[in-house]
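W.,

You were right to be curious about this one. When I first looked at the sequence I had no strong expectations either way, so I just let the prediction run and decided to look at it fresh. Below is the sequence, 273 residues in total, followed by the output.
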Amino acid sequence: TPEQLQAFRGGLRALGLVEGRDYGLRERYADNDATRLPGLATELLRTGVSIIVATSQPSIVAAASVTKAVPVIGRMNDNPVVTGMAQSLARPGGNITGVYAMTEELNPKRLSLLKETVPSLRRVGVLLQSKWSNAEHDWRVLLASARGLGLELVALSVRSAVDIAGAFKRASAEALGGIMTLRNPTVVTHLRLIARLCREQRLPAVFDAREYVEAGGLMSYGPNIDAIYRQLAVYADRLLRGTRASDLPIEQPTTFELVVNKHTADAIAVTLP
């Protein structure tokens, strides 16, 4: 998103790099249509870019499909070793590197935090995009975690604001007690709508990034995404100085933040432990 690129720019500034003098950014957006990504990546390659910064898992996959020479750096939601993008985290071995955000591994933790916050919780609606990268695998992992917590999950597949409104109507009709999101462009684009509907329907919710909480959502748990993009600026700097992508280890966050909106907790009558 443009906000994340601002963090990336800030990271480059902190390293002493000046936009327009030391580097230039050429931005392309697929507007929630993953089928456009390979074409956009190809378009960037034709302009002669030195590095591709991919801001989503499907963007990384698309870039990797059209070049094995130009370095691709990005925030990885799926395990790059499991997906075959890297030989190992320490030595990726190809043209892809960056930060693995551990999204999949943290989803069960987010669900357990929601249960800890609302002990009476029994049924949780999960906002996801069923055709998005790794959604099916993430869903299976989450189902296994839910069974251990005594929770029933209800999949709410969304691709638009209209779908989100319909999902919350279903949540009300089926008396769901909470909401969780699996990260995809739809929930990122409409995070303010999701936060507002959670608050209006008095639904406790857990998210993967603090932006949702700042928009009025109840709580989030995960790495700071802006910090990840500032770290990607370090990768870009080293690549521009001649380091090969294959020699840059894929890093993992070491700090995770639990962010809670106390005003929302009070408004929806949730007593925080």
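Here's what jumped out at me. The CA atoms of residues 69 and 95 lie 6 Å apart. And, maybe more interesting for your project: The mean pLDDT is 93.

Coffee later to discuss?

I.
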